[in-house]
């Protein structure tokens, strides 16, 4: 008795969702690409979870409310704690700082509201499903979103929290309760810049007000300056000043405590937002989004790094972009 191994070639028929043509595949494939329109069909799509959709939306809305309350607290608390001190110094100084604070507050709150409630990026409606209407390569690398029941371009991602497809989706930010995509990416970067400037200004004003609220430490300062020739004496003088401030902190008023908390909170938020802003600008410089960066990890695909990506993102005039290659060539010639 012997055993024989034979191969059976079977053709599988499938229908392309993009152009509606019947395709004959040499073997069964769960994922295949149409040779006419270029659409990618997946027989076994991974459907996103919908059971916790409502909970995620409630979580994001709570984060939005908490962030809005925190910003209002920083604005109102700073006005209550700092500006009596500022106006007591000089009327012109108080007016100047008041105009600056109001401008920064309006800018930060406006950009926050815009990025939180503006559409993150609606995909372009495109014809699909009919062979006469879909041309050759019209849906190249398109996939079909079974949740939204519409084509999804390679630059589009489906957000499980928002329950919709977002064009050029960067990430979903729970603190704004919205996705960051093609529709509000500029507003998100503008919000980060405005918030960083506002928190830096708030921290500086808190320190400036605390210096005038805390009791004067003339003895410690005189001790440190009189023994400035010796490094050990300088350290002792600084130590005496710090201990004097800590001892006086027991008698600090409620206004001083609010200023101290605002200073710590402003510095912490400024550091965190600065890191996020640097990350966003780095991805824009590389011509990528955060999701593209995650999907390209471990591969050799790399976007074109150029300052023109930043200029295009911020909508700078085309004249500047045209002169960028000239500037680069001049630098290269100068180096050589």
UniProtKB/TrEMBL annotation:
Membrane topology: Multi-pass membrane protein
Ranges where the Palmitoyltransferase DHHC domain occurs: 141-295
Naturally occurring in which organism (per UniProt): Brassica campestris
InterPro entries associated with the record: Palmitoyltrfase_DHHC, PFA4/ZDH16/20/ERF2-like
Comment text on domains: The DHHC domain is required for palmitoyltransferase activity.
UniProt xrefs under PANTHER family: PALMITOYLTRANSFERASE ZDHHC16 (PTHR12246)
Reaction catalysed by this enzyme: L-cysteinyl-[protein] + hexadecanoyl-CoA = S-hexadecanoyl-L-cysteinyl-[protein] + CoA
GO terms assigned for molecular function: protein-cysteine S-palmitoyltransferase activity
CC per GO annotation: endomembrane system
Highest classification ranks of the organism: Eukaryota, Viridiplantae, Streptophyta, Embryophyta, Tracheophyta
Coiled-coil annotated residue ranges, if any: none
EC code: 2.3.1.225
Name of the protein: S-acyltransferase
UniProt keyword annotations, A-Z: Acyltransferase, Membrane, Transferase, Transmembrane, Transmembrane helix
PROSITE patterns per the UniProt record, alphabetical: DHHC (PS50216)
Source superkingdom: Eukaryota
């Amino acid at each position: 008795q012997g055993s024989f191994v034979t191969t059976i070639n079977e053709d599988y028929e499938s229908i392309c969702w993009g152009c509606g043509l019947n395709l004959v595949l040499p073997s069964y494939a769960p994922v295949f690409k149409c040779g006419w329109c270029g659409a990618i069909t997946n027989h076994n799509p991974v459907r996103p979870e919908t059971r916790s959709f409502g909970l995620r939306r409630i979580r994001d809305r709570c984060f939005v409310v908490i962030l809005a309350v925190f910003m209002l607290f920083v604005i109102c608390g700073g006005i209550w704690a700092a500006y009596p001190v500022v106006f007591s110094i000089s009327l012109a100084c108080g007016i100047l700082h008041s105009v600056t604070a109001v401008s920064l507050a309006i800018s930060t709150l406006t950009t926050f509201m815009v990025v939180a409630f503006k559409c993150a990026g609606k995909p372009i409606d495109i014809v699909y499903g009919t062979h006469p209407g879909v041309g050759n390569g019209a849906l190249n690398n398109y996939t079909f979103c079974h949740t939204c029941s519409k084509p999804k371009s390679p630059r589009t991602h489906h957000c499980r929290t928002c329950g919709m497809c977002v064009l050029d989706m960067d990430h979903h930010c729970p603190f704004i309760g919205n996705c960051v995509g093609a529709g509000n990416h500029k507003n998100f970067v503008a919000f980060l810049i405005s918030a960083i400037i506002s928190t830096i200004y708030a921290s500086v004003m808190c320190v400036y007000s605390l210096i005038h609220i805390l009791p004067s430490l003339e003895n410690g300062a005189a001790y440190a300056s009189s023994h400035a020739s010796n490094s050990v004496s300088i350290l002792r003088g600084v130590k005496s000043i710090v201990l004097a401030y800590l001892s006086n902190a027991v008698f600090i008023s409620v206004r001083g405590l609010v200023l101290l908390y605002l200073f710590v909170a402003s510095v912490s938020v400024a550091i965190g937002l600065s890191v996020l802003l640097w990350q966003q600008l780095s991805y824009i410089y590389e011509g990528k989004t955060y999701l593209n960066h995650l999907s390209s990890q471990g591969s050799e695909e790399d976007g074109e790094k150029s300052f023109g990506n930043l200029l295009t993102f911020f909508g700078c005039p085309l004249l500047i972009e045209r002169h960028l290659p000239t500037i680069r060539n001049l630098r290269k010639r100068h180096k050589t």
